[in-house]
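#struct-pred

JT: dropping the chains for the assembly here, can someone run the whole complex?
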Amino acid sequence: ETGVTQTPRHLVMGMTNKKSLKCEQHLGHNAMYWYKQSAKKPLELMFVYNFKEQTENNSVPSRFSPECPNSSHLFLHLHTLQPEDSALYLCASSPGTSQETQYFGPGTRLLVL
Amino acid sequence: TQLLEQSPQFLSIQEGENLTVYCNSSSVFSSLQWYRQEPGEGPVLLVTVVTGGEVKKLKRLTFQFGDARKDSSLHITAAQPGDTGLYLCAGAGLTGGGNKLTFGTGTQLKVEL
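RK: done, full complex below.
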């Protein structure tokens, strides 16, 4: 248990569906991250939030829309996804804005049909 | 773009054997972290190395940061089935990258009885 939870753990959706991934951290951290992990590819940083403000958007398509209502919660809203978006989506948090350890959630395994 | 190449990509060994995983880059990093990821879970931090030439030990695991802070190695002595997992190195950049980490390509280790 790393103190970072993600729901759902598994998700299957059609290309026309809209769904949301949720991440919650119980560590009192101020930075939160979304990563995409695909087979045979390095972990890809998608978004970074520091103190609820988005500080990084790593050229992510607009069909992925993040939301950070407070420092403890992070959402990833999904709409009109493509099959190549199927992957493990990992949420992480860290204490602040320096290069500290990141604590990862267990991920959401997404399959887009 | 800072890239981290890990080798080998896959490794399958017998219990009791020794192994070394390498993490190489042409870029200099201010620090380097090693994570282990088990199936169905997110990556968990094993160690952070900061100083060039630094060596850290964690039970049967020995981590070394290269003198020039461009590369790192992970050596496991007398591997056990519990060491099975995906090993990821992650570098923190020097150029004001804030809290961004660059993850390596990963080494999938399987230790069999």
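JT: nice. The mean pLDDT of chain A is 92. The longest strand of chain A covers residues 18-25.
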